Amino acid sequence: MWFAVLPDGENAPAAASVLRSGATEVVSHHSGRPWLVGSWPAGQLVTAAVGTARLAVIGRCPVTVDALTDRLRRIRDITGAEGALAGLAGSFHAVLSAGGRVRVRGSASSVRRVFHARVGGVTVAASRADVLASACGAPVDERQLALRLLASPPPYPLADGGCLWRGVHAVRDGHGLLLEADGRATARRWWTPPDPELPLAQGADAVRRALTAAVDSCTAEHKTVSSDLSGGMDSTSLCFLAARGPARLVTFRWESVDPANDDAAWAARATARLPGAEHVLPGRAGAPLWFSGMDGLDGAGDEPGVWVRDSAKLTTLAGLMTARGSALHLSGGGGDELFAALPPYLHDVLRRHPRSVPGRVRRQRAARPRPLLPLLRGLADRSTFSRWLTAWADHLVPDPAKPPPARFMSGTAWGTFSPMPPWATSAAVGAVRSLLREAAADAPEALAAQRGQHAALAGVQMCGRAFRQVDQAATGLGLPYAAPFLDDSVIEAALSVRVADRGAPDRYKPVLATAMRGVVPDDLLARSTKGEYTADFYFALRRNRGALAELFNESRLARAGLLDTAALAAGLARPHLPPDVMRALDNTLACEVWLRHAIRPPGG
Questions:
Q1: What are the C-alpha distances in Å from 539 to residues 293, 297, 312, 530?
Q2: Of 100, 204, 317, 400, which is least surrounded by CB within 10 A?
Q3: Distance CA 433, CA 190 (A)
Q4: For residue 446, what is the DSSP state?
């Protein structure tokens, strides 16, 4: 699925002609000029017309044509779009054409992104970057590709404004793009994170209403939907909400190779309470391993996606679910980022509720042992976000002889220093270091004044970008994905809750647990553990080392000067990899596969 948005100007038809080769659908402005060009499934586009104005909602949204038309009547000019969209559930792009101007925006979470480039002499917006890259012949940006080699996905502001093709630009999350008739374009903010002021009970009620509406938007239009049911609180909540809807529910779970992983026990308790659903568990014999099925793998997405590691699993899951009639698969992505107690919350709690901090520190250190002195230094730190970016650039390659200052490593900093992998070349490290320093020099504001709020939103955006890539791959297999926790209304509700209540150290995900009381059985909400899959990683790596080494024999990353193949081979040969290197392997594999398929025709 993809679409491009064209301005209502005399040069727009020339740009549209470049894009039409891969398009199956065209929608016009009132003027008759092409407005939307692309390829999308039935039911994914709802349009309304009032006078010369046009409004389109593209994606998952239960709004009808009549209801959208009523909303469009409220709009006086292009600046009033958000008033017409307020309260809509789901995950979607919105495009407004009025008075010769066009406005397009995606979502706050990166699930629905907007890109733009000059095509045929005008600025064209699109939902996929590769569509624009193909249309304007843009080359791959090696610096941006090097950035994706980091051990963890690059956070704000590095990824949401960057794009992997030169000449193609990403609109930042929470911003929309305004297209003028003469082909000019400007980005404008449409969403600002809420202030975290609601007490637990009030905030949990808002989360319950928003999450219920989000899941309802998934079940309302389909006869059958499927959902992950790992046994964790996030997927369990989605399944119990989906079971209340009109669609038939099919749940799915992979079995871990680790007998100590307690996901299985909790998932079994949940399935016993969902007798109306069909439950699918392939078992270990029928479950492909991570890193398997690499031969002939298609890059699929417009960005590298860590789903590549799971490609065989994704293919198997799609086949099992579509065979049972599922038209949409629900994922619990975003739940950890919104509801888990992230370490930076302590920094915020100290400034609002200082008397509660000693007890919170004791409980946190009991759960996750860590040295006390670095933690206290981190709590006292008042470094700006840009200073943290600079420190990250200075310590991009770990050096045991010169560790970074304790205040940046305490867990209460603005983020975590994600290192470059040991197989990254000096050119790759230099490229990423320059991007970090350029970002710091711009003195960007953090996503929120409070570190915990910033960390939650940055995590949501990273999760949204990863989910977007999974959805692109899964949609190609016939099973589109949905992540209700990443819907804008759910994010808004969750981030409105007071930081001290979200980060309570003696309860696991207290906001979500409170919100789901009465929907999910209380004993399932009492779970305080989380499944651990390190054993699955090493088991799969041992079985697939040879295939991985062969895949990198003719490495495109090495040809680009970003990968040291000898260092990678040495890393693959090690019996155990540090956690950062484990994560970096996933990202390196994603970049390698993506680079082999980087340019394709629009919609191809």
A1: 15, 21, 15, 20
A2: 400
A3: 31
A4: P
The lowest-confidence range among 247-251, 391-395, 521-525 is 391-395
pLDDT digits (tens, 9 = 90+) for 1-31: 999 999 999 999 999 999 998 899 999 999 9
- Is residue 127 within 8 A of residue 2, CB to CB? The reply is yes
Angle, in degrees to the nearest 10, between helices 357-367 and 345-352: 160
What band does 462 get if pLDDT is binned at 50, 70 and 90? very high
Domain ranges of the chain: 2-189, 367-451
Q: Which residues are CB-contacts of 21 (< 8 A; sequence separation ≥ 6)?
A: 601, 602
- Please list, residue by residue across 518-553, b when 16 or more beta carbons sit within 10 angstroms of its beta carbon and e when fewer do: ebbbeebbebeebbebeebbbbbbeebeeebeebbe
At residue 603, the pLDDT reads 44
Radius of gyration of the chain (CA): 24
Which CATH number does 2-189 carry? 3.60.20.10
pTM here is 0.95
d(CA 299, CA 308): 8
Query: What are the tens digits of pLDDT across the range 106-126?
Result: 999 999 999 999 999 999 999
Q: In the numeric block, which tokens belong to residue 279? A: 């439950």
Whole-angstrom distance, CA of residue 1 vs CA of residue 274: 33
Dump pLDDT digits (tens) for 405-418.
Answer: 766 666 788 988 89
Report the distance separating Cα 412 and Cα 396, nearest Å: 19
Q: What is the pLDDT of residue 354?
A: 80
User: What confidence score (pLDDT) does residue 599 get?
Assistant: 56
Q: Which of 125, 219, 220, 133 is nearest to 168 (CA)?
A: 133
Sheet holding 175-179, edge to edge: 45-50, 53-60, 91-98, 101-105, 175-179, 185-189
Between CA 341 and CA 338 the distance in angstroms is 9
How far is Cα of residue 588 from the mean position of the Cα atoms in its chain?
Answer: 18
